[in-house]
Each structure stands twice: as structure tokens, then as C-alpha cells.
Specification:
Elements: H1 7-32, E1 34-35, H2 50-66, E2 73-74
Antiparallel strand pairs: 1-2
């Protein structure tokens, strides 16, 4: 059955399927990324660069632990509306 399809048509079908698979994979990877919801918290840090980033990360997780902020979630969870 496939041998009856002209070579040009088979090539176009292969390209269309490949593009569709790549787009679906990229969208799936984007949707599965973990994101943090909007949240405000205060962190006091005297460090610079990596020390400040570590203090901000620690402050975020303390806010999550105390219930002030929601934990991270997959990006797709709120696409359903």
C-alpha cells in the first residue's frame, strides 16, 4: 500500500510527521517545566552573588513551609482554566 504512494508524497509525509513530533516534544518540554507562582517574601542578606541567591532560595522555601507561598508546579496545570 505504501509503495503506491509517490516518492514526493512520502517525503512530504515524513517531513510533516517529523515536524509534528518535534513541535509536540518542544511543547511537552515547555509544559512540564516547573514554575513558581507569584509570591512576596522578605529576605535579609549581606552576601553578594551566589550567597544572595542561596538566601533568596532559602527564604522562598521557608515561605512555602509556613504556607505564605504556594509550592512550584508544572506550567501546564493552569492551562485547563
Amino acid at each position: 500500500m505504501i509503495s503506491q504512494i509517490p516518492d514526493d508524497t512520502r517525503r512530504l509525509l515524513l517531513i510533516a510527521c517529523t515536524v509534528t513530533a518535534l513541535v509536540a516534544g518542544a511543547l511537552g518540554a515547555f509544559a512540564a517545566q516547573s514554575v513558581r507562582p507569584s509570591c512576596s517574601y522578605v529576605v535579609f542578606s549581606l552576601g553578594l552573588g551566589p550567597e544572595q541567591e542561596e538566601a533568596m532560595e532559602r527564604g522562598y522555601w521557608q515561605a512555602v513551609g509556613s504556607g505564605e507561598c504556594a509550592p512550584p508546579h508544572a506550567r501546564w496545570q493552569f492551562w485547563r482554566g
